[in-house]
Amino acid sequence: MRITYLVEFEEEEEIVVGKPKQQKKYFDIFFMPVVVFFLELSTRFFCFGFSINKSIIYILLFSLSFGLLINSLLMLFKRRVLITYIFLVILILFYGFNVVYYSIFHSFFSWSTLFMATDVTDFYREAIAGIIAALPKIIVLLIPLIVFVIFRNEIELFERLSKKHLLTFIATILSASLTISLISLVEENKKQILSLQLDYSEVVKSFGLAIANIEEGRELIFGAPEIEVENPYEVTITLTNQSDVTLNIERLILYNTLNIDFDKLIKNAPNNTIKKMHEYFSLNPASDKNDYTGYFAGKNLIFLTLEGFSSEVIIPELMPTLYKMATEGFVFTNFYSGQWGGSTASGEYANMTGNLYTSASCLKNSAYTNTYSAMGNLFKRSGYNTYAYHNWYGTYYNRDKSHPNFGYKFKAYKMGINLTYHWPTSDYEMATKTINDYINSDKPFHTYYLTLSGHTNYTWGGNSMASRHKSEVQNIGITNENVKAIIACNIEVENMLTYLIEKLQEAGKLEDTVFAMNCDHYPYGLPDAALAELYGLDAKNIRSNLELYKNQFILWCASMEKPVIVDTPAAAYDIVPTLANLFGIEYESKVITGTDILSNKENIAIINTLTGSGGNWNWKTTQGTYYSVKKKFVKSENCTLKDDEIDGYVNMINNKVSAMSKYSIYILDYNYYNYLFDSSGKPRYVKE
User: Fold this and answer.
1) Which of 334, 571, 600, 658 has the maximum number of C-beta atoms within 10 A of its C-beta?
2) Local structure of 391: helix, strand or coil
């Protein structure tokens, strides 16, 4: 089309022929949705690899909603070009930061941990290494900004406070509503994922990073939504049909219970959530007292949560003490330390309480709740002196508040323990500076250590303890420098244990002291190739391989005459009830998520991989292993199930796992133990 304009001059008229500027009717509306979708897909690819499935549709729809929402905000401003630049920079920084964070921790940043990790300046090495490793990815994320700079004059921006503005806002609401409706109609489990009842990485992979952050913000303000889970015991067990004693044809079976009156608790429940929890735990079968009940009664206990530890690092020639403990005590051959979403904090929480939680806020929240099942409290109530130590800042993750509430006299770096500054600090030195606190205790003692020497980075420059022992690992037949480094830094753990044994031997207390230890998480700071060499696994998709999360719960006492082999599948949350039974402590097993590994109750080892590809709520029992992503059950060699029984069994265990995870989280979220026990650990209501 040609338009003729008449231009008047003083003496003549000139005819000017021109073309009008073409209107870009849709590009201005869809520019931001396209940008968000590009950043979401790039982040998903960088963190989880290439895959096409229905999650792409959800991410597309959420990107549309989020992008349209940004458009609606942009339309409020006069200087829309400048504000668009600012929004683009913020978005790229947001996604870039999470890509770097994931490259370091193999999980995404959570706002709930923002003010928990204080004194973090010494993590600059990890940050620099993460940025360098992620630099090509960051450059890709800059593409939307580069496109806007180059084609700025070709892009028509949004009209301010116009009819289009109103329509854009309406479209935002409609697209978000449509997406949520599709999720609820098509896939029931997606609602549970979106509510963050699974780990953060799974939310990001299923729906995108933006929605994961928005949902977390909503939950931080308004709390998590109620997730309905069928009580797995309602069908087969009535409320009062399990007593504390069972008469068996062969023997009298006693249970680890405190005779709590759940009928009265249910009747007096303040709300429906607490009532359902009472109903669930009342029906949860108690673990039985067994041949190992009281096996270590009256002995001392030293428990260690070992930072980033894997039993694969134990080389007999370099670590004779660790090797002795791992092979001559209780040998748990089927033990797993899955990931829960809170890195060290959630791993430590599982070790210390017998419950699981899916974010690092577990320690902070534990400072203000009834922590009945915490190991320190169990032993303290049994007459022990209890101590806890950490060779880093006590304020990190609020341990200075959580650990005293777990029942310990707590000391940390610059908080009662004066240590030589290194990054990381020395586990061995921590032992030398603390042993005099308890070795001459007038009562049995329980001491807890959280170590640091095994912290990433596993390089000679990134870990001072690795550098300290570099010469000791040069001729061990390993070529990968990262593998050598992680072995080297764990020699500090070896030296720590050797020192403690020597001092206990001198004091005449070695045979009366039990050592127990587990990792907080697998050494995620190792590159995939290094993990593959250390574990003997295929490097491809290694972080989704369940065997990467296999570890060893080390439990040893010098007085043991021979090793005890235990092949029952077990997990970190099983440690507390197992130790409580071994030490003959009276406790209520029905209200702890974990199970005494040595009991006859069926044990379920939940194995979360936290990679967004290996899946969550994978599990292993004596019958076999279930892979949640593939929905596949693989029978064990000892499986007694018939083929036509497998589907029913898998559904039953899946239901139990859902209930275990939900109510374990609720124990902390709703301060549940406060309804059951007073501050001294005594039941509020006991059956008459």
Assistant:
1) 571
2) strand
Instruction: Give the CA radius of gyration of the chain.
Output: 29
Closest CA to 231 of 671, 660, 591: 660
The whole-number pLDDT of residue 336 equals 97
DSSP string of 208-264, one letter each residue: -HHHHHHHHHHHHHH-PPP-----TTTTT--TT---SEEE-SS-EEEBS---B-HHH
CA–CA dist 109, 435 (Å, integer): 37
d(CA 96, CA 142): 9
pLDDT digits (tens, 9 = 90+) for 250-259: 557 899 999 9
Alpha carbons 72 and 688: distance in angstroms, whole number: 65
Cβ atoms of 551 and 519 within 8 Å: the answer is: yes
pTM of this structure: 0.87
**% helix, strand, coil for the chain, step of 5:** 50, 15, 40
* Residues 579, 581, 587, 590, Cα dihedral to 10°: 100
Strand 564-566 to 330-332 pairing? parallel
Q: Are 660 and 593 in contact (CB under 8 A)?
A: yes
Asked if 324 contacts 556 with a C-beta cutoff of 8 angstroms, the reply is yes
Burial class (CB in 10 A: 0-12, 13-18, 19+), 140: middle
Task: List the one residue out of 427, 485, 494 whose CA is nearest residue 458.
Answer: 485
103-137 residue pLDDT tens? 877 778 877 666 555 544 556 667 777 788 888 99
Domains of the chain, start order: 27-222 (no CATH), 245-676 (3.40.720.10)
Q: In which residue ranges of the chain is pLDDT below 50? A: 1-23, 119-120, 196, 236-241, 249
Q: Which of 360, 354, 372, 378 is nearest to 570 (CA)?
A: 354
CA dihedral 296, 301, 305, 306 (to 10 degrees): -90
